[in-house]
Every structure is written in structure tokens, then in C-alpha cells.
């Protein structure tokens, strides 16, 4: 930080196992900087948002602007105008791009120039988010913190790499945290700080402090310290367990109870801590199904749903008990409390404490509540709805939502996220009808419907792979071969043409001109007596391109002239190019 304050950009990756104290160290660092009058900006990745493009930065922007999902679009737009990046000659473009990230209705936003291609919009969006994240770094040093990058979405990863590679003379510090697991690679090639466990003396000190002085037995302290292996979360939670036992048992019985109740693993210890709040466990389980962070309004709506009546005490009482026990933290956002589990592992323990049957049912209730009462959230993050449908075992709804999420990500040029959503949908399809043609389970009335659904998803996936991996990538060829097989089985001439065109491009990019030529011939042969104009042009242009690159220049020019003469309607060019889904650059160009 001193180096940053002196005018030199720094980036550090803080790594350590779960519960080792990464977030606590970051919190102490933030407080130290705040005490000196320095600014820090913090955002966090989450497993439920690992497929949501730029979600940590969107959350950061919402907090800075104090805008929330339920606010009127006009209010959100007014606060968005307060950002420095939405002023100046490019103000309308900035408002349109950032407003789109906040899922504001298009009718309240300035229109983007028609000349802006999707990739150009993505680059402009990343430049704007960089300015939002760094704020006024030219006036004072800034520390940007991104926690839990092991759950980072690909778009945020690309943005962080852009920030890491920024001007070295900027007074910016990037502090990233990552859970280190055996075999995992660092998320970024950065200087690393690896956290080790606490030593014996520090372990004893933390045990005594966190237990409110109820631990005095030296033998018991030594036993707990050995069991904790220096992991602060284990130390802290076992000490809190001791404090809870001390409130109900005489001092001489606490040691015996602890030896019986403190298990050997951190996950089992966290489950034991939940057992200490058995009267509030129902609220913890609902919250865990919602995510590590959840709003008071959302958990209230779920617990009020007739499909999931909350047993025991009232919701407020249960939430307060969890906060008092240190299992949840709470802060106000947008006029309502937002709760967070003290640690991600604690959330996992609460989620797994539900029977599998009940867990599926609860996720189904959550999906129903989201659709009925939180439509803006579903529109902004259809992948969140898809995940709950999938956890509920509702295959048809999950498939529809994953496809919607893929299309939304594609519209934002978030191609990697779109690929992830499509792979999730295709994985669900793999559990569809049997290969022997047996009756298909819901949602597939017939094997043909299953094939048609897969064909649609594979065509979407091909476009995304083309954008991220290129025409000559082996995964793209595998997708096109699958499209070819599906299209042939369904008799879909248009999809078959696209598959062969994609495969021709694959062989051409790898300089396999013989393979490309055979596919170009198949394209021409498959046009039929009254070919669609774009299909005709693409097939003959592929031949002309091959002639040119194999040195047959006069023949290539003659065929290219024939293509141009055959194609005269610019309106048809636009219409056909749009219907082609951007498979290739338009040949007439």
C-alpha cells in the first residue's frame, strides 16, 4: 500500500484454505486504510453468480449509487447520472451501457449508435466499469478488493486482468482473495500472499478470547488446538460452541461435552454449531438455499409461501437468534436488512442439513416466489432462476431458463458465460430420452422434440465458440458435427447447411483444403432447385475462397464476380445476414 501511495500500481493475490482468515485479514486492512482517510471499494464473487457477467461490479455500482432492484427506473437513471463517467460528450453512450447492466428498461435509456457492434459495446462497457471501479484514482490512492475469485465469472476475470495490466504509474491497489484447494491454480499470475495456520500460542489466545473466557482447562485447550490445526474458523467456532455449552452446563461438564461434540472436520463442526441453534435452523436452511447473501424481503416471501411454512418461532426471532449466535451478519441495504452467512462453509453446512427431498422442494418454492414476486431479478439474472429450477429437479423450466440466460449473455457479448449456460442446458438434455427410442421423460414428448431442442442449443453454442475459440477450434468442429447429425435426422436443411458451412470453415482455417473443398461441393449440391439466396451465396463464395487460396486466381475472380452479379439487393443482404445468426462475415462484403 505504501508503494501505491507513492504512485505505483500494485496487485496482490491472497490465497489460503477455507476458514484460514482471508476475509478477516482483508477486513482489518480496510479498517486500517479507512482510519487513515483512504478509500477502499469491495466486491465479492459468489457461486450462484459465477455465470452472471460482471455481477460483482454491478453489485458495487448499485451500492455506490444506492439503487436497488425494486427502485423505479427513473430513480435508478437519475442516480446513474450522478456518476462521473456518465457526464461529458459520451454521456448518452455511458448511460445506455451502464443502464443496461443495471437491467433498466430500454425505453428510459438513450439509444446506442446503430454502428456499435456487440463486441464494441462490450469493450466500451469494460472501459466504463474500469472507471467506476477505480473512481478518482488520479486524485487519491484507491484500493479495489475482489473476494473469492475462485467463483469469478469470465467477464469479471477479463476486466480484472485489464485492471492488472493497467498503467504502472496509477495509484491503484488490487487485492484479490482466492480459496486454495489441492491442485488448484492461482486465478492470476500475481505476487501471492499465502496464509498459513495460527501457531500454538495464537491458537490458545483465540480460543480463550472467542469463548468469552470460559476455556481454562489446559488439557482441553491443548486438545482443541491440536484438533483445529491452526485454522482460525475452526478455532473460533469451537470456542463459540464452548461458550454456548457453558451457559447451560456447569464448568466441570463443559470439557466432557466439548470432547464429545467437537468433530474432526470443519464442516462437521459448523453443522454442530447449527445444532446449537436448533430453534432457528429452519430460517438458516431457507437462507442457505437462497445463497450466502439474502434480503429480508426474499426470505420473508419464501417463508410466507404455502408450500414452505416456516416451523417454530417467527422469522424475525429466528433470524435474530442466528445473528446473536454469530452465524449470520446483517446490514441495511435499500431500507431493508440483508443477511449474510458468517462464512461460505457455514452456508454449505446449513444447505446440506436438509434432506435431499426437502431441499429439492424448497428450491422449487424459491423459483416460484422469484417468478411471482421478483420478476426484475429474474429478468436481470435468468441464470439464478435456472439454478433453482435445476436444484428443484424441474428439467423443463431449468432448460428454458438456461437458454434464456444464454441468449441474454449473448446479447451482452458475454460469450464465455453463454457457453456455460448452454453446457448446463445440454447436460440436462443428456438425461432426456433413451437412445433406444423408449418414451421420453418430461419435458420431451417425443425423441424428435428432444433432438430439436438440442439442435437449437448446439447452434447457439457454435456461435459462442466461434467468438471465443475461432473457426479452426476442435471443440467448434465437434459441435458442428453434432449439428450435422441432428439436422440430418430431423430433415432440417437450413441447419444442415450451417453445419457444413461451419465445418468447411474449420478445415479451411487448418489449411486442409481437400477437406474444405469436399464440404464446399456438398454445400453446392445441397442447395436444391430453388436455393435460398444467402445459402447460395455462401456456398459459392466458399468455393471462390478456396480457389483463391490454392492459387487458382482467375477462376476465383470469375466465381466471385458471378456471386456479386447474382446478388443485388442490399435489403436482402441485411435480412439474410440477420437470419443467418452471424455465422460468417457476409460474403458480399
Please supply descriptive tags for the structure shown above.
28 helices; three-stranded antiparallel β-sheet; 589 residues; five-stranded parallel β-sheet; alpha/beta
Give an overview of the whole structure:
Strand 3 (142-147), helix 7 and strand 4 form a beta-alpha-beta unit. The chain has helices spanning 2-5, 22-35, 55-65, 73-80, 91-101, 118-134, 154-164, 200-210, 218-228, 232-246, 251-261, 266-275, 281-290, 296-303, 315-324, 344-352, 356-373, 375-380, 382-392, 395-411, 415-429, 447-469, 474-490, 493-509, 513-525, 533-549, 553-566, 570-579, and strands spanning 10-16, 39-44, 142-147, 172-179, 192-194, 293-295, 328-333, 336-341. It is α/β, with parallel strands linked by helices and 589 residues long. The protein contains 28 helices and eight strands.
Please provide a brief summary of the model.
This protein has helices at residues 2-5, 22-35, 55-65, 73-80, 91-101, 118-134, 154-164, 200-210, 218-228, 232-246, 251-261, 266-275, 281-290, 296-303, 315-324, 344-352, 356-373, 375-380, 382-392, 395-411, 415-429, 447-469, 474-490, 493-509, 513-525, 533-549, 553-566, 570-579; strands at residues 10-16, 39-44, 142-147, 172-179, 192-194, 293-295, 328-333, 336-341. The chain has 589 residues and is α/β, with parallel strands linked by helices. It has a five-stranded parallel sheet with strand order 2-3-4-1-5. Strands 6-8-7 form a three-stranded antiparallel sheet.
